[in-house]
Design brief:
single chain, 91 residues, two-stranded antiparallel sheet
């Protein structure tokens, strides 16, 4: 567990049911456009919007299995969101 400016990280042992609840909360947060993560060490709020890049990696090595999900997107500034549709007139 650690927090840095602009970064939140948490690691813990969870059972399948707890992980399902966490994934459901992430699903709802993506739909809402706001994801809040926090524990005793700190917190962070993300605002997913627009097209997002999804990377899924699944590996099995010996007795260890791993699933990595990475979702990334570009944060737009408020000015860009409010600028509206580009209009150009010539002549």
């Amino acid at each position: 567990m650690m927090e840095r400016k602009g970064r939140f990280r948490h690691q813990s042992l969870q059972d399948k049911k707890s992980i399902q609840k966490l994934l459901d909360a992430i699903k709802r947060g993506i739909a809402k456009g706001e994801l809040e993560f926090g524990d005793d060490t700190g917190d962070i709020t993300l605002e997913p919007a627009g097209l997002m890049n999804l990377r899924v990696t699944a590996t099995v090595e010996g007795d260890q299995s791993r699933l990595d999900l990475r979702i990334t997107w570009t944060n737009e500034s408020i000015d860009q969101k409010e600028s509206g549709k580009l209009k150009v007139k010539g002549g």
